[in-house]
Amino acid sequence: MRLHIADSGVQGQGGEASMQGSFLRFYVNAAQEHHGVLLWEWLLDTGNKLGIRGGSAFRSIGGFGRRHTVHEDRFFELAGSSGIEVEFVVTRDEEQRLFDLVRHEKIRIFYTRIPAHFGVINPDDQDPAGETTED
User: Fold this and answer.
1) How far apart, in whole angstroms, are the C-alpha atoms of residue 27 and residue 84?
2) Alpha-carbon Rg of the chain, whole angstroms?
3) I need a surface site. Which of 14, 25, 27, 125 has the fewest CB within 10 A?
């Protein structure tokens, strides 16, 4: 039996609820701020307030950006010069709301967007619900 949840893009088969959306990754400098808050923290807090189900931030150990200066996470390096990756797996609606807010706040930020199929195996009553129809 295959189920389709029209409004949220949720599909399921047996004990699975799955969705179509995007894997978003934002790249920020560890010291970059927005309104006095570290930008990576602002992104996570904003995603949470927008109702996105989860987000994560990861510190890089090395890399370079548009200026081609290599930064490495070393003990003696100044704090805040490394990169942070902030990731979300979102529905199309969540992506649009997050991008709209970042644009409204005039934040210059580099990101990647990868189409994603994601879900929950054996969902419970706190997982996304919607209108079901037979395929």
Assistant:
1) 6
2) 18
3) 125
Q: Model pTM? A: 0.74
Domain ranges within the chain, ordered by starting residue: 21-114
Q: What is the 3-state secondary structure (H, E, C) of the chain?
A: CEEEECCCCEEEECCEEEEEEEEEEEEEECCCEECCEEHHHHHHHHHHHCCCCCEEEEECCEECCCCCCCEECCCCCCCCCCEEEEEEEEEHHHHHHHHHHHHHCCCCCEEEEEEEEEEEECCCCCCCCCCEEEC
The angle subtended at Cα 18 by Cα 14 and Cα 21, nearest 5°, is 170
Distance CA 11, CA 101 (A): 28
Residue 123 — pLDDT band, cuts 50, 70, 90?
confident
84: number of Cβ within 10 Å: 21
CATH 1.10.10.10 given to domain 21-114: no
| Residue with tokens 């054996």, as numbered in its chain | 122
